[in-house]
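Pasting two entries for a bug report.
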Amino acid sequence: MRATSRDSADILVVGALPPPLFGMTVVTAEMARRIGERATASVVDISPGGYRRGVRYHLRKIAGVVRSWGGLLRNRGRGVLYMPLDGGWGLLYNASIVSLARGLGYRMFLHHHNYAYLTRRSRRLGLVAWLAGARAVHIVLCESMERDARRRYAGIQDARVLGNAVFIGVAARAPTHPSPGDGLRVGHLGLLGHAKGTDLAVRSVAALRAAGHPARLVLAGPVVSRGAAEIVETARRLLGSALDVRGPIGDQEKPRFFGDVDVLLFPSRLSEAAPLVILESLAYGVPVVASGGGCIPTMLGHGCGVALPDSASFAEDALDVLRSWAQNPDALLRASTRAAARYRELWSVDAERLEPLLEEIVRSAEHREAPPRPAAKPEPR
């Protein structure tokens, strides 16, 4: 993939593009597109192509890393590297790319999408930050992420805040949820399974119904593990006809999904940073009840939802919030109105931050002198 608009800039984008479809791949694809609108950009896709990890996953990842080395060598001496960072052991792949880029004199822009290595120190991220050097720009998703990154890693000296709202491509909608009507309609969207807390969403709605409030649960997202399939089957037994399972949905189906729910549950057990699904929900005027790690408490400010502190008691704590909205449709409407307003606010702030960052990336490439190139050999006749 190659986008061209200015021949004077050489920018290498290295990162996982969809598939699989999740927050980091979506943002990486959008950043690649926007950089390519402003500069000559070469994109190296290092996506493993699926959700399941195993030998094939890592072989595809390694092949992508090797391709990125080739891209770095081709542009050596005047290049700029934009790369999102993985989590866990994937940071070692990033470290190999960063090390070569540093040796070749690249200016680096590293985009963080993981909060796990900010809640506790990671030697692997420390290695990446040290290899990248003090001149590397680290793009983080909220002010708390910036604070934690600087506090835990001395190698991160230049951190810029850029949230994800500007990347989801949804215009804020007017609230369409004035009343629960036949009962509260609760949605849960994502990669279904234990990690994303699908079982907690099921338990929350089952508890609400047991408390005497009619309620429905709409599940949407891929089921890619046996454990996830078992959770869905348990939901069928507990909720019966009050369960609506829709499977994976794309951007075209999301307006219908969010139009069919009054509130979104996001009870993730992972170290989430700034989940796109929360921003999408706010954009559609759907308030959110979420586990409260990472940037989520900031995202859900101003009465547009609730960030719960502990996923261990999520079902019980969420029940109190759901019951209050089920009993008070006016309060639900206010939360819906504030959700759309909060998304507009977040989008506006992110849009103001994105443009200067993109211009800096382009200028960093334009102001680097290209090394002398050998004369081209004549083509054989």
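Entry 2 (this is the one that rendered wrong in the viewer):
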Amino acid sequence: MSTRDQTARQRRPLRAGFTLVELTGVLIILVLVAAMIIPLVGGSSGILSVDIGNGEQSAEAIVTQTTMQSIRDTLISTGTTTGLWADMGHIANRLPRTIGQMFDSTAPVAGTPSFDPVTKIGWRGPYLTQATGTYPDVTTSDWNARNFSATYGATGDPAMIDAWGNPIVLQVDFDVDGSITSLESLDTRLVSAGPNGTIDLDLTDRRTEAEYLAAYQNQLIDDVVLFVGITE
């Protein structure tokens, strides 16, 4: 290397880091990659490929689905992870009634045993540890009018918030006496109220994944839904 080249190299300023334009470009690429990956895992995870009208998912839907996936992973076994469903011995009436109850260290359902390391059965919560918000006070706001009721949580419960600022709810259609049929347990799902902030999918709505997607595409509802995939 010549003396001139060495001098020019020494005078060349060092970059301290990425520019704002470069960082923005990286973030856009990450969102696009996530948009491609999430629908691919939908077949096995229960995530529906909800789009924004042109075959693409909104960034809010992607973020919300990712949060819902993490909740689902604690509910059922995924890969090498044993979830709450297995811990409950696949007994549906032991399932938590709300997401808030998944933050409890003790079982929310009376009669549920504590975890037995031999049988691998029993409650070993909390199953969720990092809340991203709290469940609203439905008695003093319009939350109840938007179908956020005590069915989905008590005021102040720890909650997981969707990308639109609303709590994600767990829909399990228990009977009045706390029992649940096999068919009802199959419909267990996580629901985000979506862009309009109102839960359109009723707790007792027996819509299948395909029927839900058709309703979404026909703009009848805008909820983001993840069927948990509980099987007997």
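Dev reply: Rendering is fixed now. As a check, the viewer should reflect this: Residues 34-45 have pLDDT under 50 and may be disordered.
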